């Protein structure tokens, strides 16, 4: 297959959607003030405030690792700790950046059920040690949609938030795939965040049609104090900020963000449906967002790779992850499903 054929390794294999691309082109007319003091950045922040139906503080970073790490560092001191799931991106895929940017706040991993934290698993970690020798739990971070493609229901977030209130913990959400969660649940962004008790959201754009860029939304605005300095110090203040913010205007203004997330989710459902009766193949997790996790034999995985398919197998022996994106072609999904059927026979 050609080198640029659509793949399912990650949703960030995809390119830039037309809405984001056109907004960048429009922002490319003439001169604008630098460092976020421009009209595109103001417009993007206003779009977020109207989409989330609240007067939140909005910042932009180049990628999710920076957004998560800086947001977490704003929520705790170096002697605090952050409770996350054992599969959390902050724990497994950010090279220690959350600890680095917070000057040492330790991540504490909690048990999960289908990739999700629960009030019980948070309580277990938060109450395990209460002495001065252990970093004091201060933040819970949850990922919506999760790293294994499942989605927290509003009630689940509310319950976690109540636990956080009881234990004096701030609540952060890694929303690299927040759009996919909104699309799956049919909930408003507000219902899944501040209305359910989330203090800070990192809203991912890259995996849903943007070139680069994540937005950091502080619903609890006290926590945003000096956050602009944190971004600058970390090398995350874009001088030509309009090229990070304009694409957000592009994808937010006509709900492209939600349409594309719906499409990606739909393609994941289609893939799951097409392989559900293949002998020896089973779903490792319910398909709720845009990822399909399949248990299949090692020789079959090798054969799929040999046929040119790219996908991740980091979820243990015999597990393969297939991610759909904003532009996934249904014909490609059908091809992949047919190949899975063949290599398993
Ligand atoms: C992709 C992703 C991120 C962001 O990763 P970057 O490569 O730093 O942009 C954060 N959290 C989750 C769950 C992700 O899947």
Automatic annotation (TrEMBL):
GO terms for molecular function: threonine aldolase activity. Its cofactor is pyridoxal 5'-phosphate. Keywords: Lyase, Pyridoxal phosphate. Pfam families: Beta_elim_lyase (PF01212). It is an enzyme of class 4 (lyase). Its EC number is 4.1.2.48. It comes from the Bacteria. Residues 7-297 form the Aromatic amino acid beta-eliminating lyase/threonine aldolase domain. One of its GO terms (biological process) is L-threonine catabolic process. InterPro entries: ArAA_b-elim_lyase/Thr_aldolase, Low_specificity_L-TA_bact, PyrdxlP-dep_Trfase, PyrdxlP-dep_Trfase_major, PyrdxlP-dep_Trfase_small. It catalyses: L-threonine = acetaldehyde + glycine; L-allo-threonine = acetaldehyde + glycine. CDD domains: TA_like. Catalyzes the cleavage of L-allo-threonine and L-threonine to glycine and acetaldehyde. Belongs to the threonine aldolase family. Homotetramer. This is L-threonine aldolase. It comes from Phytopseudomonas argentinensis.
